[in-house]
Amino acid sequence: MSRRQRVARDIIVADNMEVLASIEPGSVSLAYLDPPFMSGRSYDAYLGRTRTPKHNSETTAFDDRWTWQDKTESEFQRIKEVVPLKVGQLLHGLLASQGRTSLLAYLVWLTPRLHLTRECLSERGSLYLHCDSNSSHYLKILLDTIFGPANFRNEIIWRRTHAHSSSHRFGPVHDAILYYSRASKCVWNPVHTSYDVSYLENYFNREDEEGRFQAITCTAPGDRTGTKAHYRWKGRLPPPGRHWAWKHEQMEKFEAAERLVYSSNGVPRLKRYAHEGLGVAVQDVWTDIPRLDAHSSERLGYETQKPVALLERIIAASSREGDVILDPFCGSGTTLVAAERLGRGWLGIDSSLLACSLALGRTRSVVGTKPIRLQGFPSRTEVAMQLFRDEPLRFGVWGASLLGTLPDRELLSDSLLIGTRVVLGAKKSSLISLVPTGRKCEMPA
Q1: Among candidates 262, 222, 266, which has minimal Cα distance to 244?
Q2: Is-contact 329 349, C-beta < 8 A?
Q3: For 84-88, 259-263, 291-295, which range has the lowest pLDDT when averaged over its residues?
Q4: 341 backbone dihedrals φ, ψ, rounded to 5°
C-alpha cells in the first residue's frame, strides 16, 4: 500500500495497523491513543445518549476480553519482523516469565500499533496513551523500550469518576495517561487553569479598587553591590545577600502607577493582581475535568467516551495551530472535535463503522461545509443494502451521518428513519455521490 499523503481531515474505517503503516513518517505532530484497556468485559453503545430500551438503542461497541488464540500465536511469532529487536525481546521475556496469558495477548496486539504510531510522529512530536491500572505498569515499560526512558514526560492521573465502594480494595477512580515525546525536544505549551476560590483567599488576600492582589518581594537573591541592582530606594538598601529585582527606573514606574505597598518599617512590595496572572499551571493530577454523566450534552452513548475538555488540554499543550493530530482509536470522534476547535488538522481511525459514523456526524457539526475525506465507509449500493439487512441500527446511524446528524436523545427511531431514507430514497447514482468512493468524498453540509 502506498504511503498516504498528509491530509487535514480524515475518518477511516479500518484496522489501524494497515493505515498506520501507510502514513508518511514524521507527518503527525501529536498522537492520542485510547485503546481497549484489557478490562475483561464487553462494552455497549447506548445510542441517543440515554439507555432507553424502548428505542432498542443498545448495541455492542467493542469487546475488551483477551485470550491467547491461534491468531495471537501467529502474530507473536512474527513480532520481531514488525517491531525493533529490543521490543520483541521484551515480549519474549514476558512470555518466559508469565506464559501465554491474556495480558500478553493484549500486548502482542497493541505493541506493533504503538511502534507504528511512533514512526508517524515528527521529531518534535508527542504521544499520549490513555490506560488504567489493569496494564499501565506494563505499558510504561513497553513505551520506555519503544521511545527510550529519557523521552518519558509524565504519567498523568485523571480522576474519571466519583468515590465509590469497592470490595476488598480502595475505590479505583482514576485513569492514567502516559505522555512520551519522540525526542528530547518537543512542542510544549504551558497550560493553566483559573485560580480557585481557596487559592485566591490564601494567596491573593489583599484588595483595592483594581481587584485582589498579593504583595510580592521587590528583591532577589544574590549580592550585586556595585551594580545598578544595588541602590537606595526611599533611603533603604536591599537586605544583605540580596539585590533589587528591578532597576531604579522601573521601581519609579511602579511607584508612579501606585503598584508599590510598604510595610510598617518601610519595606516595599509589589502588587500582583490575580487578573493579571495566567492562572495555576496544570500539574500531573487532573481533577478539574469531570467525566461525562448520563445527562451530558456531549454524551453519545459510548461507555468509554471521553470529555472534549480532556482532549483540548492535551492538544493545546503538545501541538500548534495547523499541526496534524492522530487518533488511531477514534471511537465517536472526541479527539477530532477537539482538534478542529483548536485549529488543528486531524486523522481518525477506527475499525467500527458505527463509531466512525458517529464521528462523522459529530465532526460535521463543527467543520461545517469544509471537506472531510473518508475511507472504508460503504461505497456501493449493494454494500449499503447488505448493511441494512444485516445491521439496521448501524445502517441508520451511518445514513444519518451523511447529513451530519446524530441519533436524537429522545427520538432515536426517527433519526434512524431519516438516515435510512437518505440512502434508500436515493437512486444508485445519487447514492454514490453521497458516500465515499475511495480516496475522497466531500459530504453535503
Answers
A1: 222
A2: yes
A3: 291-295
A4: -60, -30
List all residues 6 or more positions away from 368 whose beta carbon is below 8 Å from its beta carbon.
Answer: 445
Which DSSP string do the residues of 356-389 spell out, in sequence order?
Answer: HHHHHHHHHHHHTTS--EEESS--SHHHHHHHHH
Could you give the dihedral angle defined by the CA atoms of residues 202, 207, 211 and 217, in that order, rounded to the nearest 10 degrees? Answer: -70
Backbone angles phi, psi at 205, to 5 degrees: -95, 15
C-alpha distances in Å from residue 120, one per residue of 5, 29, 154, 197, 288:
12, 8, 21, 43, 31
Compute CA distances 437 → 11, 330, 335, 352, 380, whole Å: 13, 21, 25, 18, 8
C-alpha cell at 13: 474505517
Q: What is the pLDDT of residues 340-364, one digit of tens each?
A: 999 999 999 999 888 898 899 899 8
What confidence tens digit (pLDDT) does each residue in 126-164 have? 999 999 998 999 999 999 999 999 999 999 999 988 877
CA distance 92 to 267: 67
